[in-house]
Design brief:
CATH architecture of the largest domain: 3-Layer(aba) Sandwich
Largest sheet: 8 strands, mixed
CATH class of the largest domain: Alpha Beta
Number of strands: 15
Strand order of the largest sheet: 2-9-8-7-6-3-4-5
Structural class: alpha/beta
Number of domains: 2
Order of helices and strands: HEHHEHEHEEHEHEHEEHHHHEEEHEEEH
CATH superfamily of the largest domain: Type I PLP-dependent aspartate aminotransferase-like (Major domain)
Bound molecules: pyridoxal-5'-phosphate
Number of helices: 14
Distance between the termini: 50 Å
């Protein structure tokens, strides 16, 4: 037999990073296997923190399973796509669309991957927020494009900086990604900012990619304004799904809605259709969860209200963070995360990945470093605010104690 040839990962993966499940998670798993209890605050996975799947969704899925063993239409089953249409019809400002403009996916993740593969040629640029949900950057790179990060301004509640966006548009810019409510910052964007983004997209004929998976996880008086509703005259792809609002991330169920003019983008849209058919179809039992979720009681409302669990946890995390000397945190207005800042004058952190690793080993709490969200400086971490308030408060107190004597 000839010697086995070395198999490296493909060069396409050179710039593909996903630190939310990176090296620190490997170490966390190793510690768990040694018998330690690790508090994993790295992923926004409600189920592992005791959030139940809404009963009506589980029941409809169980009832559907005996009839859900065949492939479906590549875009997804008609009842689910109609349910998506109906959901957005409730918002008068959202531009009209039909079931033919909806693609279901194995989570938003699969749809992001498909869209970037269908859109990008070598060297095409995509404007992506910094910090970002890093799958957008990763899939832009995998698609052969260049991610160009525009700043969100921490001093201004993490709203996108319109001047910075404008300065970063080039003739190669094809699309702009908007993540609202934002992961990791919890910012909910103002109408003024969304209109500013739409204006730039209009001027430069940019495709708008709106990730709105947290649009119903809002606190205090925050109001979510869909990007498509401020840019009905532009091609906007809106991404959403069941993972967060309905706490069924494991079902892998999401959707993509296409609104605005389409004639100029026929080739790109055909590309999405082609890729949807090459993946045959999304998981069919989980597609049956969509109609049940969208038409039933919206149980998320009770969780985000003033005495709701998610609201209390957001408050507990924010208060505990703000009480640590040299740590500040913009209060999250939506989503499931806090993104605190460590003042570099007070806390000496040169390598935030090392900090996360050291904190894990010492305190058995897993966070994700800010640079994992394409934030340029080593002065932030992301904390998932899904555990109960008491657990969050204790974990953040441990963070404070650890920081007090930490040096790099
Ligand atoms: N977009 C954002 C902003 C997210 O935070 C996540 C998951 O955390 C996703 C997309 C992926 O979600 P899904 O479970 O639908 O693949």
């Amino acid at each position: 037999m000839s010697p086995l040839r070395t198999l490296d990962q493909s060069s396409k993966l050179r710039d593909v990073l996903y630190e939310i499940r990176g090296q620190a998670l490997v170490e966390a798993d190793r510690l768990e296997n040694e018998g330690h209890t690790i508090l994993k605050l790295n992923t926004g996975n409600p189920a592992v923190f005791g959030f139940e799947a809404p009963f009506q969704i589980v029941r409809d899925m169980i009832e559907a399973i005996p009839h859900a063993h065949g492939y479906s239409d590549s875009r997804g089953i008609m009842s689910a796509r109609r349910a998506v249409v109906y959901r957005y019809e409730q918002d008068e400002a959202f531009p009209p669309f039909g079931p033919e403009d909806v693609f279901l996916g194995n989570g938003v993740s699969e749809l992001i991957t498909m869209v970037m593969q269908a859109l990008l040629d070598e060297g095409d640029e995509v404007l992506i927020p910094a910090p970002d949900y890093p799958l957008w950057t990763a899939m832009t790179s995998l698609g052969g494009g260049n991610p160009v990060h525009y700043l969100s301004d921490e001093q201004n509640g993490w709203q996108p900086d319109l001047e910075d966006i404008r300065a970063k548009v080039t003739p190669r810019t094809k699309a702009i990604v908007v993540i609202n409510p934002n992961n990791p910052t919890g910012a909910v964007y103002s109408r003024e900012v969304l209109e500013g983004i739409a204006e730039i997209a209009r001027e430069h004929s940019l495709l708008v990619l709106a990730d709105e998976i947290y649009d119903r996880i809002l606190f205090d008086d925050a109001v979510h304004i869909p990007m498509a509703s401020v840019a009905p005259d532009l091609l906007v792809l809106t991404f959403n799904g069941l993972s967060k609002t309905y706490r069924v991330a494991g079902y892998r169920s999401g959707w993509l809605v296409i609104t605005g003019p389409k004639a100029h983008a026929a080739g790109f849209l055909e590309g999405i259709t082609l890729l949807a058919s090459t993946r045959l179809c999304p998981n069919v039992p989980a597609q049956h969860a969509v109609q049940a979720a969208l038409s039933g009681v919206q149980s998320i409302d009770a969780l985000i209200g003033p005495s709701g669990r998610l609201h209390e946890q957001r408050d507990a995390a924010w208060e505990a963070l703000e009480s640590i000397p040299g740590v500040s945190c913009v209060k999250p207005q939506g989503a499931l995360y806090a993104f605190p800042r460590f003042d570099p004058e007070v806390h000496e952190i040169r390598d935030d990945a090392k900090f996360v690793y050291d904190f894990l080993v010492a305190e058995h709490v897993l966070l994700v470093q800010g640079t994992g969200f394409n934030w340029a400086t080593h002065d932030h971490v992301r904390i998932v605010t899904l555990p109960e308030a008491r657990v969050l408060t204790q974990a953040i107190e441990r963070l404070g104690n650890f920081l007090a004597s930490y040096r790099q």
